[in-house]
Each structure stands twice: as C-alpha cells, then as structure tokens.
UniProtKB/TrEMBL annotation:
It holds the Pfam family cNMP_binding. This is Crp/Fnr family transcriptional regulator. CDD domains: CAP_ED. One of its GO terms (cellular component) is cytosol. It comes from Phormidesmis priestleyi ULC007. One of its GO terms (molecular function) is DNA-binding transcription factor activity. PROSITE patterns: CNMP_BINDING_3 (PS50042). It comes from the Bacteria. Residues 12-133 form the Cyclic nucleotide-binding domain. PANTHER family: CRP FAMILY TRANSCRIPTIONAL REGULATORY PROTEIN (PTHR24567), HTH-TYPE TRANSCRIPTIONAL REGULATOR ARCR (PTHR24567:SF74).
Length: 229
C-alpha cells in the first residue's frame, strides 16, 4: 500500500507526517479473516492496534457467565480498534468478530506508542477521534427514551456517515444482521425487522440480501427524520 493511500484511507493518519506514515507501513502486518471469525478475544492483553482496510467487524461484550452477548459497535473501512487496551495496559474488555470478509493491518503496541510520542499531530488526531466516539456514545444515551424508529435511523445514518460507500443513487452499507442492529440501536430485534421493512417499503432504503448490502437511497430524508440537516 502506498503512503498516500494509507493516509487517505484512515482518518487517524491524515495528520501524520510522511516519515511517520512510511514507518508505520514498514512495520505493519496484514491479516485476512472470513466472516464470523474472531479477530480479538475478550480478556486478551492488548498487543496491537488494528486498522480496517476493507470489510466490517463488530465489537461485542459478554455479560455474566452465560451466553449473553451484546454488540456495542459496528466498525467499517477506515476505522481502527484495539487502542484502549494498549493505552491503559489492561486486558481487553470486549472481543471483535468479523461480520464480513475483512482485511486488517496491525501495528504492535510498542511501536504504535513510540510513534504517538514521536508525532504530536498523530497523538492529537487520535485524541480527537476518541472524543468523537465518546460524543457518539453520548448521542445514543440521549436517544434512550426516543421511539425505536428514531434510534434505528440514527444508527443507519451514523454508519452511512462513517463508513458508507457512495454508489450511483445511494449510500451503501453492509447488511448488518438484525440482532447486531438491535443491540447497537438499543431496541428489540422485532422492532428492528419491522422498521427496516417499513423503510424499504417507503423506498428510503433498499435491502439487498444477495449482495449483503443496504442501499440508503434517501439519506437526506433519513437525516431529516432524526432532526439532522
């Protein structure tokens, strides 16, 4: 991967100087995982930061000693994960599972932390993106008493803004399983299925199961529904 492509693909690296980018590329390791494969396991010590080159992953948390598992976040192309465990030097509190075939690049904890100290711009950019994630979590918390449709549409819009791929007539995201959608939106699976079907019938989205894609045909209308311009 060329340095320019590396920088453009990952917002975290947009502010890094060329020397930093060259160094990170030289020490990065590439990985490929099929869908449903565990990428990182809960309670494993953090030893690397991972960058999503292509595909989609979900971040999960296990509750109690049973099989109660909830999806906390969906991440796509251009995002990263694993940074929390290396910054506070503690075991991971979540695991990461591939939703689709996924390509990743990893950088070891030691080398990534060294790079943060050497490049203040990269350090600052990482703090900005972590604050952005916190704000998105706060928005979800503020929506906790809103109708299920508002919660789900907010999730759709957020995924489109962060990871959507522009096509001729729509913004496209991965066809995320209803259970994962419901966990992230904090609504029931039944409500998730009904709302997606209604949005599809209105022509605002188009679900394409064969290609595992949701086409957001009327993103402006979806944003208007949740009070966004």
């Amino acid at each position: 991967m060329q340095t320019e492509v590396f920088s453009e693909l990952f917002p975290l690296l947009a502010a890094a100087n060329p020397e930093t980018l060259d160094w990170l590329l030289s020490v990065a390791t590439e990985h490929e995982y099929p869908s449903d494969r565990a990428v990182l396991m809960e309670d494993a010590w953090g030893n690397a930061v991972y960058f999503v080159v292509s595909g989609w992953v979900k971040v999960r948390r296990h509750s109690g000693t049973g099989e109660n598992v909830s999806t906390l976040a969906i991440l796509g192309r251009g995002d990263f994960f694993g940074e929390m465990a290396i910054l506070d030097e503690s075991p991971r509190s979540t695991d990461v599972i591939a939703l689709s075939n996924v390509r990743l690049m990893s950088i070891s904890a030691q080398r990534f932390i060294q790079t943060l100290f050497k490049d203040p711009q990269l350090h600052h950019r990482m703090l900005q993106l972590m604050v952005k994630r916190l704000r998105q979590t706060n928005i979800r918390f503020q929506l906790r008493n809103q109708p299920p449709a508002i919660k789900l549409v907010n999730t759709l819009v957020s995924l489109a803004e962060n990871y959507g791929q522009e096509s001729r007539n729509s913004t496209d995201i991965f066809n995320i399983p209803p259970k994962d959608f419901s966990d992230v939106a904090d609504i029931s699976v039944e409500d998730t299925t009904k709302i997606l079907e209604k949005l599809d019938s209105k022509g605002w989205i188009k679900i394409n199961p064969s290609q595992q894609v949701i086409h957001l045909i009327n993103l402006k209308q979806l944003m208007s529904l949740i009070g966004r311009k």
